[in-house]
Amino acid sequence: MYGLEKDKKTPFEFDLEQELRKDPAQGKAKLQMIEERIQEIKNLLREGSASEEFDKLGVLLQGYTAAKKIINKITTKK
């Protein structure tokens, strides 16, 4: 599918996976940055805001949480 079927011997890895496997310290830095952003968004949500902004912040929070889970899986899987 989409050119990925050419090499069936090695599993497909996304660019992010390749970068984090080469430099594990970069993964820790990204996790720290994501955690800081999550805390900022949570603080903004607690303060309250307009409903449009509230919905957008909720979507951002879900995206950062998903990214955190993915990076944790990549860095712990070896």
| Euclidean distance between termini CA atoms | 26 Å
Low-confidence stretches: none
Content-based structural category:
mainly alpha
Oligomer: single chain
- Biggest β-sheet, characterized? none
The backbone outline, from C-alpha atoms, is elongated
Average per-residue pLDDT, rounded, comes to 84
Structure annotation, total helices: 3
Number of strands: 0
Q: Provide the helix percentage.
A: over 70%
Strand content: under 5%
List keywords for this structure.
single chain; mainly alpha; 3 helices; 74% helix; elongated
Describe the structure.
This protein has 78 residues and is mostly helical. The protein has a domain at 26-78. 74% of the residues lie in helices and 0% in strands. The protein has three helices and no strands. α1 (15-22) packs across α2 (24-47) and α2 runs antiparallel to α3. The longest helix has 26 residues, at 51-76. It is elongated. The two termini are 26 Å apart.
Provide a short characterization of the protein structure.
This protein has 78 residues and is mainly alpha-helical. The chain has 3 helices and no strands.
Write the SSE topology:
Elements: H1 15-22, H2 24-47, H3 51-76
